Automatic annotation (TrEMBL):
This is Cyclic nucleotide-binding protein. The keyword Ribosomal protein does not apply. Transmembrane segments: none annotated. CDD domains: CAP_ED (cd00038), CBS_pair_CAP-ED_NT_Pol-beta-like_DUF294_assoc (cd04587), NT_GlnE_GlnD_like (cd05401).
Length: 616
């Protein structure tokens, strides 16, 4: 290794935690025992040995650590480390290191790693803390005490039993008996065509007197309801309840990878969020709903205490808000009579994106199938007032900006909504766009969802590649900056003499939402959830996979800190806020938060260069 390479390595480790904590002789020992290898994406995985464990350090490229069940444990790029759990515990390697991008990996053997741990307390403490955090993350995949927020892979069956369309009812019944299963997937050329269950055989064959020689396709349920591999067990439970089914094929990119049944869920979980939604669905008055909704803050604290990912907490809380909204609409329709035309209740902002947290206010509207008469408009405004006031009583306060369905401005026909969006898109005024941005995070909660899909299609057709509109959105998105000053020092906000701290919502998560929204609208992506948009953008030419991964990680890390801080505020009896004092987190967390804010800053620079056209 020549002097230039040695100097480059030394500078790398000086700038990378925890190696920056090492003394110069210790760094020299590290570099002297360093191995460097090139890994290509086509290799798929990094080779790791339980017999000769090593500490791996990412010099370039991108990697994912995944559990044996395929769950994402960690994402790593330059400066990231993996392989330390086996070095610390002596246990076998179980997780996989998946190669996302070609890169260089450095590594040291166990003797060097242990020698540096013994010589340097800060170095040792870093890996002990990292391992403790990893245990908490991985415990989500094995704990069954409250698995409602786990993904369906934690309980689904992967040993799938299937049949062909032409197989007889008798053959299929024998197959179900022999394999001791209550359902059978009907497949053709690796595509799922239907599902048949014990209940189908009872109701559609025996009760109807059909022949056992009948083809199974005549009694199966065609095009069954399915669920995504990344969905939570809670969402699976809701989907089963909504469609009155007990089996859901689990899909990923058009392929069926598993099956989840109501029995699987009952056996493996005690679902507190689902119980809360079921209670909501059984109430018949606003007063009863208010009483049930008083359990939501307790549920939030339980999820925070369980170290649940911020994205999952947002989805769970939003699903509960959705349930409250639907039940209020049903109570309203029972009180006012049937709606005079088809309509969809729309959620905007955080509820639209499914990332609600504590103290979320309302942002909603009504989408009507046609221009209403005065009597029809009066009906919908009365219905909307009942729902909005009901949500306010349940803790989801009225929108300070009056973006609510009970405001006639936001109770419109589909043609009127379309013209309003076209006005924002075709004649973008900075102030109007700033207030309108949340409307582009739109989702149908109840009613004729096809109306929302029709409106979204028209909007995306207008925004895709629309340089003037995107320039206006980008100019607004870079006005607020993450709280980093010179030399990467945190900038805290003050209220008189009081130090409020850093606003993790408006100077962190909201900035990422703004950035990702612009890319999604530019690319015509129909998703509104920020993580889902980033997942779609992985395959886009507008944003590199590495930048998409960095924004995903920054969103989760800032959101997790924000929720953990709110949990601490709740325990201490303090007012719940989005402000974090740097002193309230560890030095390692402060370092990671600086990195997350730097990702946001660089992403803002990216959209300014790509879209702003000198307006920023």
């Amino acid at each position: 290794m020549d002097s230039g390479q040695l100097q480059e390595l030394n500078e790398f480790f000086l700038q990378t935690i925890p190696f920056s904590e090492l003394s110069q002789p210790q760094r020299a020992d590290l570099i002297r025992n360093l191995s460097i290898e090139y890994v290509a994406k086509r290799q798929q995985q990094v080779s790791m040995s339980s017999d000769e464990p090593r500490l791996f350090i990412v010099s370039s490229g991108a990697f994912e650590i995944r559990s044996p069940q395929g769950e994402l444990v960690d994402r790593l790029d330059r400066g990231g480390v993996f392989g330390y759990p086996t070095l610390l515990t002596g246990e076998a390697v179980v997780n996989k290191a998946v190669v996302l991008e070609d890169g260089l990996l450095m590594s040291i053997d166990g003797d060097t790693f242990n020698r540096l741990r013994q010589q340097n307390r800060a170095f040792d403490r870093f890996f002990v803390q990292a391992h403790a955090k990893r245990i908490r993350v991985e415990s989500r995949f094995v704990s069954k005490s409250d698995s409602s927020h786990f993904v369906v892979t934690s309980v689904m069956t992967t040993d799938l039993i299937h049949a062909r369309l032409q197989d007889t009812v008798q053959d299929c019944a024998k197959r179900m008996r022999d394999h001791r299963v209550s359902s059978l997937l009907i497949m053709e050329q690796q595509c799922i065509k239907g599902i048949v269950t014990d209940k189908d055989l009872r109701n559609r064959v025996l009760a109807e007197g059909r022949s056992s020689d009948s083809e199974i396709q005549t009694v199966m349920t065609p095009n069954p309801v399915t669920i995504s591999l990344k969905s939570s067990v809670f969402e699976a439970s809701l989907l089963m309840s909504e469609h009155r089914v007990h089996h859901l094929p689990v899909m990923d990119d058009g392929r069926v990878l598993g099956l989840i049944s109501s029995t699987d869920i009952m056996r493996n979980q005690s679902s507190q969020p689902l119980l809360l939604v079921n209670r909501i669905n059984r109430q018949h008055s606003i007063e009863e709903l208010v009483k049930v909704s008083q359990q939501i803050p307790k549920l939030l604290q339980t999820l925070i205490s369980a170290d649940t990912r911020a994205e999952e907490i947002g989805r769970l809380l939003t699903l509960i808000t959705d349930a409250l909204t639907k039940r209020l609409l049903q109570i309203g329709e029972a009180h006012l009579g049937a709606a005079p035309m088809a309509y969809a209740w729309l959620a905007f902002g955080s509820q639209g994106r499914q990332d609600q947290v504590a103290k979320s206010d309302q942002d909603n509207g009504l989408l009507l199938a046609k221009e209403p008469t005065q009597a029809e408009q009066d009906y919908f405004l009365r219905l909307a007032k009942l729902v909005c006031d009901g949500l306010d009583a349940c803790g989801f306060v009225h929108c300070p900006g009056d973006i609510m369905a009970m405001n006639p401005t936001w109770c419109r026909s589909i043609d009127s909504w379309q013209q309003q969006f076209y006005k924002w898109i075709d004649s973008p005024q900075p102030k109007a766009l700033m207030h309108a941005s949340i409307f582009f995070d739109m989702r149908a909660i109840y009613g004729a969802s096809h109306l929302c899909e029709q409106l979204q299609h028209a909007i995306l057709k207008r925004t895709k590649g629309n340089s003037i509109f995107l320039a206006g959105m980008a100019a607004n998105a870079v006005k607020a900056k993450p709280p980093l000053g010179f030399f990467n020092k945190f900038v805290v906000e003050r209220d008189g003499k009081e130090v409020k701290g850093m606003d993790l919502k408006h100077k962190g998560n909201a900035l990422i939402n703004d950035i990702v929204r612009i890319y999604a609208l530019a690319d015509g992506i129909c998703e509104v959830n920020t993580s889902a948009r980033l997942s779609k953008l992985m395959n886009s030419k507008l944003l590199s996979p590495k930048d998409a991964l960095n924004l995903t990680d920054a969103q989760e890390f800032i959101g997790h800190l924000r929720l953990a801080n709110q949990g601490r505020q709740h325990r201490n009896g303090e007012p719940i806020s989005n402000y974090l004092q740097p002193r309230d987190i560890s030095s390692l967390a402060r370092h990671q938060l600086r990195d997350a804010f730097d990702v946001v800053h660089r992403a803002q620079q990216g959209i300014a260069l790509k879209f702003a056209r000198g307006m920023a």
